[in-house]
């Protein structure tokens, strides 16, 4: 949410800021917030676990204030699933944050740019020398102007329990055999829940990236290709009808929250968990009884294997920021090499900029993910995580429509046609992504 996020519903175990809203200043007792310092207001989503929330507060608040004593950082953390509802209204209110984290892409940050709620950052990139991957920067560029600073690279993969699955399936047929074996044992093959709707978008991204490949998706996203084609219908049918009828998901999948589905995997009740690399840190903390591996979704009908990858959230400066300079200084601090290394080690996220990885202290699972993705982050091998590239109206049709396909009230062909209609409308309105 992600997630995208974004856009991602995580386990919350209580603690600071995890049951509602956290407004965090520096750790010092008795300090009056602000005082003679300039206040920088930062709005972001809560982290996945209590441990991560503490770590990110240490990095984003305490360490920033230590290095920038002229500022007090007020960090407000809310449920990630509420961000898309909260951000637009807050930016229009008299309580606007100075800087905030939000999903990039036309359907998220692009909407804010179109309505004049965020400041362009073209000059700031040049002045500060921010070394964001050029392809990643394009994900936060709307109508030729860059507005956001991408801060995380993601890949959508399948995590699996190595005790239950000694080998990774290489084809759809092999995955089916594994799934049938687990059904006989009473194990859920795939831990998937779609109550929040966005998880279906991730499965759709897996399916069309696999069946169409990078070039096929590029033809649709940046050319004259269409969504109502046999490959897209096949992807929708496989993930949202076939797998449901085959019993590969938990029952009543549309009523299952993402965190509940994840817990089925953590507890060993499910063999596989299709989701993004953003969940690695939580998996490392939550799973203690078995070793976790990962693989890209295997070849479907002899197609290539193109796991979706792209940019998750980014940082934006509010148009009505009361301290825009402080907001810029905060972003600049987060992009420093030493800060980026801390974020990698403490939060296990892959930055959208080159970072020296020598000597990093990270879990083995994350090291494998880091090596898989960050060495060639723009390789043509990867597909796309579509919700961060698609316009808002397309995402709305994607999320509500897949829920209907899952419950059997809409056919895969009808959903493909609806997606094409939404895309054509957005294209006429000039709201689709531009190619990097």
- Please give the CATH class of the largest domain: Alpha Beta
Oligomeric state of this protein: single chain
How do the SSEs run, as a string of H and E?
EEHEHEHHHEEEEHEHHHEHEEEHHHEHH
* Terminus-to-terminus distance: 22 Å
Which blocks of ≥5 consecutive residues have pLDDT under 50? 1-34
Helical content stands at 40-55%
CATH architecture of the largest domain: 3-Layer(aba) Sandwich
Instruction: Kindly state the number of beta strands.
Output: 14
What is the strand content?
A: 5-15%
Label the overall shape. globular
Tally of DSSP helical segments: 15
Structural class: alpha/beta
CATH topology label of the largest domain: D-Maltodextrin-Binding Protein, domain 2
What is the assigned CATH homologous superfamily of the largest domain?
Answer: Periplasmic binding protein-like II
Number of domains: 2
Summarize model confidence as the mean pLDDT.
88
Arrangement of strands in the largest sheet: 1-3-2-4-13-7
Query: What radius of gyration results from the CA coordinates?
Result: 21 Å
Biggest sheet descriptor = 6 strands, mixed
Would you give an account of this structure?
- The protein has 436 residues and is α/β, with parallel strands linked by helices.
- The protein has 15 helices and 14 strands.
- It has 2 domains: 176 residues, 3-Layer(aba) Sandwich (D-Maltodextrin-Binding Protein, domain 2); 155 residues, D-Maltodextrin-Binding Protein, domain 2, CATH 3.40.190.10.
- The strands form 3 sheets. The chain has a 6-stranded mixed sheet, with helices on both faces.
- The protein is globular, with a radius of gyration of 21 Å.
């Amino acid at each position: 949410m992600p997630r995208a996020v974004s856009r991602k519903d995580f386990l919350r175990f209580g603690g600071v800021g995890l049951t509602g809203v956290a407004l965090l200043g520096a750790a010092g007792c008795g300090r009056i917030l602000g005082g003679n310092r300039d206040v920088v207001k930062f709005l972001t989503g809560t982290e996945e676990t209590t441990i991560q929330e503490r770590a990110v507060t240490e990095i984003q608040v305490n360490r920033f204030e230590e290095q920038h004593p002229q500022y007090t950082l007020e960090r407000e953390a809310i449920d990630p699933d509420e961000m898309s509802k909260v951000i637009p209204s807050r930016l229009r209110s008299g309580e606007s944050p100075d800087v905030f984290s939000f999903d990039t892409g036309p359907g998220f940050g692009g909407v804010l740019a179109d309505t004049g709620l965020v400041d362009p950052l073209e000059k700031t990139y040049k002045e500060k020398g921010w070394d964001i991957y050029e392809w990643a920067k394009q994900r936060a560029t709307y109508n030729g102007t860059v507005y956001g600073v991408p801060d995380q690279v993601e890949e959508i993969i399948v995590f699996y329990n190595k005790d239950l699955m000694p080998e990774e399936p290489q084809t759809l047929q092999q995955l089916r055999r594994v799934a049938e074996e687990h059904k006989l044992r009473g194990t859920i093959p795939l831990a998937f829940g779609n109550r929040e709707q966005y998880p279906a978008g991730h499965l759709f991204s897996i399916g069309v990236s696999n069946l169409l490949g990078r070039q096929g998706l590029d033809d649709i996203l940046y050319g004259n290709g269409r969504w109502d084609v046999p490959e897209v219908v096949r992807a929708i049918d496989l993930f949202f009808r076939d797998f449901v009828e085959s019993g590969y998901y938990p029952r009543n999948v549309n009523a299952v929250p993402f965190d509940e589905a994840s817990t089925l995997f953590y507890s060993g009740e499910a063999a596989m968990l299709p989701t993004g690399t953003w969940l690695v840190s939580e998996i490392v903390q939550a799973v203690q009884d078995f070793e976790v591996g990962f693989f890209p979704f295997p070849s479907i009908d002899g197609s290539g294997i193109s796991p979706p990858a792209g940019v998750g959230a980014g940082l934006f400066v509010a148009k009505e920021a009361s301290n825009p300079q402080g907001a810029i200084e905060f972003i600049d601090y987060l992009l420093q090499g030493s800060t980026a290394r801390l974020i990698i080690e403490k939060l296990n996220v892959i930055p959208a900029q080159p970072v020296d990885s020598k000597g990093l202290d990270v879990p083995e699972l994350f090291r494998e993910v880091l090596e898989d993705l960050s060495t060639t982050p723009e390789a043509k091998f990867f597909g796309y995580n579509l919700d961060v590239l698609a316009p808002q109206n397309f995402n709305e049709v994607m999320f509500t429509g897949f829920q209907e396909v899952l419950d059997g009230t809409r056919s895969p062909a009808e959903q493909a046609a609806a997606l094409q209609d939404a895309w054509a409308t957005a294209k006429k309105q000039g709201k689709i992504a531009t190619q990097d």
